[in-house]
Specification:
This protein is an alpha/beta fold and 463 residues long. Helix content is 44%, strand content 8%. The strands form two sheets. It has a five-stranded mixed β-sheet with strand order 2-1-3-4-5. It has a three-stranded mixed β-sheet with strand order 6-7-8.
């Protein structure tokens, strides 16, 4: 492993990190890896630990990692944003992390979803459909940043990159705060529902150690999910608790037209009844819809009539659509990723992208700095240099990010409304000037009463 360089810097000397001259004044230590650095140096309240992956005196680079004392990351982010305005956003070059949070982050290693990549990719595509209301055909041309903007992408990126991750609530809250701070569009599905589905899947797979966001009422969902993943060629036994499930599932082996008809009949029956477990019913609907054309996402429209009552059905539909990939793992090569939309491959690539804590961030700005800029008033993304025009990548936690639109619809509408108002005022002013001029002309040409009367006044018309 390459040598890691570090230095403990007091706040008053922070400027030395930003210039080659200042770095020469620092007392650098060289260690074999980051763990060795953290075992020997601890930051204090007014000091910060700077870490480089290469010798800064030879390469003139900024630190890749800044480690601060626990509970002081927000204060440090605000201070650096102000003090280091010339390198704003500083979090595009170096990560700021509290010492205790490093314990749950994987310092090195390759991200993994334990063979469940395609069901997870399907879930993310299902969230895109549920949040946007778009038809499934749009997934073929969907830009990758639309998928990376979903909550499920951020959650499963955390699970893949950091198996011992423990900051789940922070990621979810940061994701919601980012959308509010940057004034994003209102989504058609509640993020709490998305988080709950993700928690059930993560628990069922055993993807993350110590994951504790599930509740006792999720037991049926977890059992059904585990049954599906354990024997993907057979329908989960737990779903038979849903009325009419068994009879409809038997009809999912006929022609595609018969399957659509059977599914429509189930929806009609559910309109007249209210199953006791609506969450399990959403899972059942997603599963049955995925059986119309197994391994594809081509029939999301059949779920549209049920979305209001069963809002997570589209999420489960996308997840179950990727389950045939598990059959391939069980020596049944009847399914390939080519059956999925092209955007699914981009999702899989980005979920499993290797990224070390000592690599320079790939995001445009981190959440802590975005929050600090938002507190000063105005648009926190104004003037930000982004990797992609029209969007910004926000790092919620090391190696975990989301994507937002830089220019929101609300701002565009406000600008259009202001321009319309200015044009209206100009038109009103011109009209008033014309009326005033006409009035003055009438006053000047009016005949005074003191002048001689006309000899032949006009006759009055008889009514």
């Amino acid at each position: 492993m390459n040598t890691v360089f570090s230095c403990l810097v007091e706040r008053r000397d922070f400027g030395d990190l930003l210039s080659p001259e200042g770095v020469r004044r620092l007392e650098l230590d060289a260690e074999r890896d980051l763990r060795s650095v953290l075992s020997k140096r601890l930051p204090r309240e007014l000091s910060i630990l700077a870490v480089w992956a290469q010798n800064p005196r030879e390469n003139d680079v900024l630190p890749a990692l800044l480690v601060c004392d626990d509970g002081n990351e927000t204060d440090w982010a605000a201070w650096i944003t102000t003090f280091g305005a010339k390198i704003r956003p500083f979090s595009a070059f170096m990560r700021l992390v509290a010492r205790s949070k490093l314990e749950t982050l994987t310092l090195d290693g390759k991200p993994s979803l334990k063979g469940f990549t395609w069901p997870v990719a399907g879930l993310i595509l299902g969230e895109v459909l549920a949040a946007s209301g778009l038809p499934d055909k749009s997934l073929e041309t969907m830009p990758a940043n639309a998928c990376e903007s979903t909550l499920s992408f951020s959650i499963f990126r955390a699970a893949a990159a950091h198996p011992r991750f423990a900051l789940w609530s922070q990621v979810i809250e940061s994701w919601e705060a980012v959308r509010q701070l940057t004034r994003q569009h209102t989504r058609l599905i509640d993020s709490a529902l998305v988080a709950r589905v993700c928690s059930v899947i993560i628990t069922s797979i055993g993807l993350a150690e110590g994951y504790n966001l599930v509740s006792p009422k999720d037991l049926n969902l977890i059992t059904a999910c585990r049954e599906l993943l354990r024997t993907p060629a057979r329908s989960p036994l737990t779903l038979k608790m849903i009325p009419q499930f068994s009879s409809i599932e038997e009809r999912m082996h006929g022609s595609r037209e018969d399957r659509v008809i059977a599914f429509s009949e189930l929806l009609h029956d559910l309109e007249r009844s209210s199953p006791a477990d609506s969450d399990l019913t959403s899972f059942a609907l997603g599963y049955l819809a995925s059986r119309i054309a197994p391994g594809t996402i081509q029939h999301s429209s059949v779920l549209r009539p049920a979305i209001q009552k069963y809002p997570t059905a589209l999420l489960w539909y996308g997840f179950c659509a990727g389950v045939p990939s598990l059959e391939g793992r069980l020596q049944n090569p009847g399914w390939t990723p080519m059956e999925f939309p092209a955007s699914a491959r981009r999702i899989a690539r980005d979920l499993l992208r290797s990224e070390s804590l000592l690599d320079a961030p790939s995001s445009d700005i981190a959440f802590l700095e975005l929050l600090a800029l938002a507190r000063t008033g105005g648009d926190p993304l104004k003037g930000l240099i982004t990797s992609t025009q029209g969007t910004a990548t926000i790092e919620l936690a090391p190696a975990i990010s989301t994507v937002v639109n830089v220019g929101s619809k609300v701002e565009s509408e406000d600008a259009a409304r202001s321009a319309k108002g200015r044009n209206l005022l100009i038109a009103m002013g011109e009209s008033l000037e014309q009326i005033t001029a006409a009035y003055n002309d009438l006053v000047r040409t009016e005949i005074p009463e003191s002048r001689q009367r006309v000899l032949f006044p006009p006759k009055k018309r008889k009514l």
